[in-house]
Design a protein that fits this description.
globular; 13 helices; mainly alpha
């Protein structure tokens, strides 16, 4: 084949914050096992209140000198991202009451599809064809990984709203993260979710003190690692990473969730589930690998 028609593949480059974000998805996948047992005996609203309020306090203590320089952009952007994040958790929790966990996992994963769609609707940023193909592959992969039968009911619509909220959270961060202090921006997000979770728990009369050692352990792990550190990493990563790429990286969460479920909870993946995990990884590669002829491609 002549040099003029040969296709040269550009090496897939990944920056350190994207690597850290992949590690974060692994942590979130691991917490599925820990949190699942905790919320069986403890209200979800109170769990979210404790988790995110504690995370915000810890981050405030670590960043106390710089919090006084909080800017208007960081405050408004952090509140907006925090509201979207809280909405995602609230819709997901409400939907789980009337749908199956498999349905909820698949539909929540559709955030990867909604991200380029909302980006186009809100910001008129047209997704590249490879982003579309990658999103479709990721959606199919998530379906094969998580579905064990799909029945349409009210809960599905609520979890669909959850996926849209998580996609909106990604897009808001992509707009406000560049030029913002990641620590201050993360603090405002966590404080917003903690405040709204407390209002929810108080309104539902579900605020109580944990009585189980397992609940305390789950709160400690999720507050320190899966919230304070994790959302700091996501905020920092989104300052240099396109939102569609972030969305695809986040689809690794159910992959890690399945792995830790296998190791820690005795879950077993079928061949179809394993094919789904492979498709998710393929979606990332399809989206990010570009030929030398793709002149002018964006992200």
């Amino acid at each position: 084949m002549s040099e003029s028609v040969a296709v040269k593949m550009v090496p897939w480059r990944i920056n350190p914050w994207e690597m850290a974000l992949i590690a974060v998805t692994a942590v979130w996948g691991w917490t599925f096992v820990t949190v699942h047992d905790a919320i069986v005996v403890f209200p979800v609203s109170a769990f979210l209140s404790y988790r995110f309020t504690t995370a915000a306090v810890l981050l405030a203590l670590a960043l106390s000198p710089t919090l006084r320089r909080l800017t208007r952009k960081e405050l408004l952007g952090g509140v907006g991202a925090g509201v979207a994040l809280f909405a995602g958790y609230a819709f997901q929790t409400a939907g789980l009451g009337s749908t199956t966990p498999s349905n909820a996992a698949f539909i929540t994963g559709l955030a990867v599809v909604f991200t380029p769609l909302l980006s186009f609707l809100l910001f008129r940023l047209r997704p590249h064809r490879k982003q579309i193909w990658g999103a479709c592959l990721a959606a199919i992969g998530l379906a094969l990984l998580t579905m064990q039968g799909l029945e349409v009911h009210r809960g599905d619509a609520l979890v669909l709203a959850c996926a849209m909220a998580f996609a909106l959270h990604i897009l808001i961060l992509s707009r406000v993260s560049p030029g913002a202090h990641p620590g201050r921006l993360t603090f405002v997000q966590l404080a917003t979710v903690g405040f709204l979770g407390t209002v929810w728990a108080a309104g539902a009369n579900e605020m109580m003190v944990p009585r189980s050692a397992h609940v305390w352990l789950a709160l400690l792990v999720t507050a320190v690692v899966a919230s304070s550190l994790a959302y700091f990493v996501q905020t920092k990563a989104q300052a240099t990473t396109p939102p569609n790429r972030v969305a695809l990286i986040l689809t690794l969460e159910p992959v890690f969730g399945g792995m830790f479920g296998y190791w820690l909870a005795g879950d077993r993946l079928t061949r179809m589930n394993l094919v789904g995990a492979g498709l998710i990884l393929a979606a990332i590669l399809v989206t990010e690998m570009r030929s030398s002829g793709d002149v002018g491609d964006v992200g």
